[in-house]
Here is the input.
Amino acid sequence: MKGAFDLFGEALLAYSKGDKTKFFFEDIHGRRYEEEIGKFFRKKRPYYPNERKIVSLAKGKILEIGCGVGGFIPGLMKKGEVLGIDSSSNMVSIAKKRGFKNVKQADIFKFKSNEHFDTICLLDENLGIAETVNGTKILLKRLSNLLKEDGQILANVENVKGKYSIWKARCLYKNKKGKYFRWIKFNSDYLKKLCNEQKLNFEDMQLE
Here is the structure.
């Protein structure tokens, strides 16, 4: 996935400077999906119910993976001490310009920390960044190693049919095409199995 979201970061940076050029994701079948860039810059980002649930459960020392331009950070800061990381230098730069100093550029697969966290958040279905089943196993192990003994991982995921599904797509922006990336989604029962393999207790949170 390295470099696959460079155009996304470019689009966000341009938007922050007033450029409203449309941004799209295009799947391998040529279907295009417009992404509303403006939503990431709202002073108070409206949360979906599953996002509100995650923010409400966060506590203590919090690590947000894939923090982007900082949309969820204000809510998380009300729940504890937050560190946001993102692999895109553009997104981290924008987040800092928006006043969020508690963010840094880092790839979770290489991220090192001298401290452990009470809560690790993967909002915007960011568990999918692992791309494959094996990649997800590696990611879960890394997250487990970053947790305090009684810590928690909070993620919103789409419960798909079958064990899992992989969406393959690329970024389109200003007549430029990014590299294809894969985004993996899981059936909750299969994800529970993967979590148990890493000695992580899995709980499927049902929204009220």
